[in-house]
Amino acid sequence: MAFPEPTDPAESRADVFLRYLDHFRAQAIDKVRALSDAEARTSRLPSGWTPLELLVHLTAMERRWIEWRFQGDPLPDPWVDQPEGRWQVPADATVADVLAGLAARGDITRAFVAKTDLDTVGVPGPGWDGTATLERVLFHMLQEYARHLGHLDIATELAGGPTGE
Questions:
Q1: How far apart are CA 3 and CA 56, in angstroms?
Q2: What is the pTM of this model?
Q3: Which domain does 105 fall in, by range?
Q4: Rounded to whole angstroms, how far apart are CA atoms 137 and 125?
C-alpha cells in the first residue's frame, strides 16, 4: 500500500485519517509477515518486547480507543494486550492469528469511522471522560501507529527483515 501523500485527493477528513491508519496498519502487518515465526516471537531489544507482541498491542489499542473509550462500550478485558503490565501474545495465538486480528480490527475501525462524523464527541465511560471528538481520537491513534511503526522498523532490521516504507 503506497504512502498516502498530502496532495492525494480525498473525499473527506475521515478518508484522510483512514488512509493513514490503513497504511500504517498494513506496514506493521507486512513487516511482521516477512519475519520467520521464530523472529516474530523473539526480542532483540533490551526492553524485551517482540514484533508479534507489538501487533497484539496495536490491535488492543485500536479496540480500546474506539470501543471502550470513544463508544463507551464495556469491555471485560480492555488491557488484554498487557495482562501482567507488559505486552503479551496469547499462548495459543499463531502469527497468522495475530496478523488477521489486526487486519480485522482495522475493518471494524473503518466501518465505524465511515458512519460517524469526526466532530462527534465520545461517550464518557470507564476508560475516559469522553470529552474528545472522534477526530482527536483518530489523531491520537495515528501518532501511536507512527511511533510504534518506527519501533518495529528497528526490531525488524535487527532480525534481518524489511524497514522503511
A1: 23
A2: 0.93
A3: 13-158
A4: 15
Mean pLDDT of the chain: 93
DSSP string, 114-153: HTS-TTPBPPPBTTB---SBHHHHHHHHHHHHHHHHHHHH
Say whether pLDDT at 1 is over 70.
no
The whole-angstrom separation of Cα 148 and Cα 54 is 8
Residue 1 lies in a domain: no
How many folded domains does the chain comprise?
Answer: 1
Residue 114 belongs to domain with CATH number:
1.20.120.450
User: Would residue 70 count as lying in a domain?
Assistant: yes
Q: Which residue has the cell 517482540?
A: 50
Let me know the angle formed at the C-alpha of 102 by 115 and 52, rounded to the nearest 5 degrees: 160
